[in-house]
Amino acid sequence: MELVKYKFVNDEKHYSYYMNYDQYKNFQELTVIQECKIYRKNHKNINDNEYEMQKALDFALKNDTSHIKKLSKIIL
Question: Which residues contact 26 (CB under 8 A, 6 or more apart)?
């Protein structure tokens, strides 16, 4: 799992959350994402986070960022 830092289009805040590398690659391609980079590599595997992140990615594909924002830690 990687800790990924990202920013949504039209949002001033930065967020972070854990995702696997495949999720990261898909996430950075979403139209709702303005910035996306791996913040910390090779974090321990967290299976619960992986499921929740996949669910959030599914919503984000439909331009719904509410789930990922609930999961994310805001970075100021």
Answer: 57
- When divided into structural domains, the chain yields a total of 1
User: Which structural domain, as residue segments, surrounds residue 44?
Assistant: 2-75
Angle, helices 47-60 vs 21-28, to 10°: value is 20
pLDDT band at 2, cuts 50/70/90? Answer: confident
Region 11-21: what's the mean pLDDT? Answer: 91
In this prediction the pTM is: 0.64
